[in-house]
Design goal:
9 helices, mainly alpha, about 0% strand, about 75% helix
Length: about 250
């Protein structure tokens, strides 16, 4: 199989680090308070600061002035996109559509910054020896995939449930433990798909269903549970397949 980013060498490793920085900054180190209060400038600024810092740390293996500027550009542009989403966003679109548009814009910025660094750096990769490029690429893409499955996929699941008016009705069933179970489920399935252990996925789903066996007798909850669980599993599998294609 052609490993898209690995076969690009240094440029592929650079983009993988940019991708990991975005996923960690947006889906791991963005707190609930930042998400809920993003309309307030100080909370938006704190999110931008944290994301920029994480992005720069992920780019340390390629350290140079151009790379530093690239990390700052990614952070600032992220803040602008988030501000526009909150204050000007397409209110006629469903939340899940706004989320996807937001992430597409962030990916476009990553590609633009990546290309700009390539042009300005002129092929110099500084602190990264060539033999380490494949390992750095694979590690960064795996980190990006895992980061997405922590809160990114969870946000999409919540938006889908709200679309079908299941979120509010079943809010009592969604405890902190339930959300943690969903995160662990996605991470385990993600890892199983990456290492091609497809048959083990069934055991994960069965184990989760056993814990909810009696609650599934309630028709409304069973629908909520099935839609949420199946979509969560689908996102974990799709993200893992994308990771396998890249690395």
């Amino acid at each position: 199989m052609y490993a898209w980013l690995v076969d690009l060498g240094g440029p592929g490793a650079l983009f993988a680090c940019l991708l990991a920085g975005h996923m960690l900054g947006d889906f791991v180190f963005q707190t609930r308070a930042m998400v809920a209060n993003k309309a307030q400038f100080r909370w938006l600024l704190s999110h931008v600061f944290v994301l920029t810092l994480v992005q720069i740390l992920c780019l340390l293996p390629f350290w140079s002035l151009h790379v530093l500027i690239g990390g700052i550009v990614v952070g600032l542009s992220h803040g602008v996109i988030d501000w526009l989403k909150v204050h000007v966003g397409c209110r006629w679109l469903l939340p899940i559509s706004n989320f996807l548009m937001d992430q597409i814009l962030h990916m476009v910025i990553l590609l633009v910054v990546w290309y700009g660094i390539l042009v300005l750096n002129g092929g110099s990769w500084f602190a990264v020896p060539e033999p380490l490029w494949p390992a750095l690429t694979r590690t960064s893409v795996l980190v990006a995939g895992l980061a997405f499955n922590i809160h990114g996929a969870g946000a999409l699941v919540s938006m889908l449930l709200i679309k079908y008016r299941l979120g509010a009705e079943q809010s009592d069933h969604v405890s902190g433990q339930g959300k943690l179970i969903g995160i662990l489920e996605r991470i385990i399935i993600f890892i199983l798909v990456v290492v091609e252990q497809w048959t083990a996925i069934g055991f994960v789903i069965v184990a989760k269903s056993i814990a909810r066996f009696k609650a599934l007798e309630d028709k409304s909850f069973s629908e909520y549970y099935l839609i949420g669980s199946l979509f969560s599993v689908l996102l974990a599998m799709l993200s893992a397949i994308i990771v396998r294609v890249l690395i």
